[in-house]
Specification:
With 107 residues, the chain is mainly alpha-helical. Helices cover 66% and strands 4% of the residues. It has helices at 2-10, 20-24, 26-32, 36-48, 52-64, 81-94, 96-105; strands at 71-72, 78-79. Helix 1 crosses helix 6 (81-94). The longest helix has 14 residues, at 81-94. It is globular.
């Protein structure tokens, strides 16, 4: 639950809905993005949509970036993007995003 809160808190910017063409090529969309905050948001969106491999690519890309600044989360904490990406990868491994998708569908 704490990891989910950290990922959700990192989503500082609302990203626009993905275009139809981008939905067909989510890995290509990840490869062109260079902003760690946007990549984290995209990774979460893709994971919730069931695009696990593309989400993994997004989180791995952020984890590999050499970023010397932190992102402020909505709860006021400052967290390195690589730490948030590691948490996203753990959530993918644990199936936490799939669980969220199930909860959304049951509402």
């Amino acid at each position: 639950m704490m990891i989910q809160a950290m990922i959700a808190s990192a989503m500082m910017l609302q990203s626009p809905q993905m275009a139809t063409q981008d939905q067909m090529q989510p890995v290509a969309q990840v490869k062109t993005e260079t902003d760690p905050a946007k990549l984290l948001n995209l990774g979460v969106e893709l994971a919730i949509a069931g695009e696990t491999e593309a989400a993994r690519v997004a989180f791995e890309k952020v984890r590999a970036m050499r970023v010397d600044y932190t992102l402020e989360t909505t709860d006021g904490r400052f967290v390195y993007p690589a730490d948030l990406a590691r948490d996203g990868l753990k959530m993918l491994e644990n199936g936490d995003f799939a669980a969220r998708r199930d909860k959304i569908a049951s509402r």
